[in-house]
Amino acid sequence: MPDSDPSEASSVASQVPVVPHTPSPPVPVTPPPPAAQSGSHGHSQPHAENASADRRQSSMKDELVVVGLAFVVMTLATSWYKRTTSTGTSTPPLPPGPKGLPVVGYFPFLGPNLHHEFAKMANHYGPIFKIYLGSKLHVVVNSAELAKVVTGEQDEIFANRDPHTAGLVTSYNANDVAWAPNNGNRRKLRKVLVYEVLSNVNLEASHSYRRYEVRKTIKDVYDSIGKPVDINEILFLTVMNILTSIVWGKGLAEGSKYGFSVEIRDVVSRIVEIAEGLNMSDFFPVLARFDLQGVKKKMEDQMKRFDQIFETTIKERTGSKSALIGEKDKQEGKKDLLQILLELKDQDTMPNSINMTQLKALIVDMFLGGVDATSAMVEWAMTEILRNTKVMTKVQDELAEVVGLNNIVEESHLPKLKYLDAVFKETFRLHPPLPFLLPRAPNRTCTVGGYTVPKGSTIFLNVWAIQRDPKYWDNPSEFNPERFLNYEGLEKWDYSGTNLKFFPFGSGRRRCPGISLGEKMMMHILASLMHSFEWRLPEGEEYDLSEKFGIAMKKKRPLIVIPSQRLIDDNMYL
Ligand code: HEM
């Protein structure tokens, strides 16, 4: 495929000067022609002397011209070389990339699984390439080394987003953490989320909510013993309920007091569904105001429903009756997140004070950031365990040893489940739920890997390809949790994003702030499902690993399996 794109001329030409061609070699100096060849007619002696003097003069002139030309060419060549090799003084070219069509860019040539397509292109174009999707320039980064430049050395520039339509609506116009530009407001909101809302103390204080929801799920599965169970469905529900109770307290999650939990579940599922579709407005900004597919309108309708839930519950909470509920929970060490956020909202003069819109946007962030990715991950991990008998035996042995077959899984067991932790890491390596993370957008034109990355372009960090790159991983497509156990201290494998060969939660300033909560939920739910039940496929079915690209990369076909009782004591299921 050719490396130039005709549509570049109009959209980025102003930012990228044309790089001159390699200079031609200097012209060789031609010796003066012999006298016999200089005239074809023959001449007398004096004339011959004059003619010879003329020839000498003109040949000197020629030499001077040639030497001059050579000098100019050499000077140009040197200056070109200096310009293209020095960092500060000239703009390097755009990254290479496939040629697209005018207007639509490369869209017509792409299949549904963008991460597969981009991994193939990375093999062809190298560690960084560009691609036009619609009228927008996208830059795809495919190596750990360049990912480090984007999320480390130049993180300040790249810690910006270019929110798509759905993101703008759900974030109350980027008034949140996920879609905000990299400014003081974003930093404040992120601090609030990380240090106030999702702090270790608060996560500890809300552990009984998680325990309650996980136990409820185990009981529901127990009631379905012998029947096919849609794992994705129960995971989505469990994570939704956990987040609902962490945010609003148990009353709302049970649905008994306000009856809102079903409504929240429905709103979140619909938002995820709408956001998963391709919205042309995001790739052709000139069309955005027409909202041709109605994505903006549909999203706004759902957000109105979310808003209604906020209005009602916040009014209740700030009224005398619910303030008492908050007080009671506080005494029991169960302060829900809404309560924490409302307290921050009231501290008008404090640096961490937030307004009502930001409060709502933070809660939406938690639901949209947490539910889909967490449930998708547990489903992937469970599929990998069930289809690898050796892995399953090791997981079950570890659970029997750490938890015991006369016991149920508690959060206190989780740090001891080292093998299950390695299973999750290996699952994250092969099935990162956000294969390109959340796209970034530099707020300045800059240089990455020797290429210009223009301000405002959309940056995909191709974590899916990096985590399967044979340059970094032995037998990369093999599911082998041991690689995260037996590394003998050579590499540090965790979710912090410091090792850019493995960063499923992102890296740098925009790294996921929900890692601890996500990890607790994933480990607790999966450990409980694997500890409490044996699982088998329905007759004639096979385990399937095909993927569906969306908000989070999920299984194309949901995992449907049949549970049977594993623990002898029936009381362990109540
Ligand atoms: C297994 C579960 C989860 C996975 C795999 C996951 C993954 C990610 C990833 C890959 C990013 C983008 C990072 C980047 O652009 O560099 C992200 C961002 C984010 N996640 Fe998570 N996440 C999970 C759970 C959660 C939870 C439970 C919450 C909240 C309670 C959450 C809230 C967020 C937010 C707010 C952002 C935006 C951060 C920013 O832009 O500064 N996530 N997550």
Automatic annotation (TrEMBL):
Q: Which cofactor does it need?
A: heme
Keywords of the record, alphabetical order, are: Heme, Iron, Membrane, Metal-binding, Monooxygenase, Oxidoreductase, Transmembrane, Transmembrane helix
Question: So where does heme get bound?
Answer: C512
From start to end residue, where is composition biased (Pro residues)? 20-35
Which Gene Ontology terms cover its molecular function? heme binding; iron ion binding; monooxygenase activity; oxidoreductase activity, acting on paired donors, with incorporation or reduction of molecular oxygen
InterPro entries found in the cross-reference section? Cyt_P450, Cyt_P450_CS, Cyt_P450_E_grp-I, Cyt_P450_sf
Compositional bias of kind Low complexity: 7-19
Transmembrane spans: 64-81
What superkingdom does the record give?
Eukaryota
Residue numbers spanned by region Disordered? 1-59
Family in the record: Belongs to the cytochrome P450 family.
Q: Spell out the protein name for this chain.
A: Uncharacterized protein
User: What organism is this sequence from?
Assistant: Mikania micrantha
At the highest ranks, the source species' classification is: Eukaryota, Viridiplantae, Streptophyta, Embryophyta, Tracheophyta
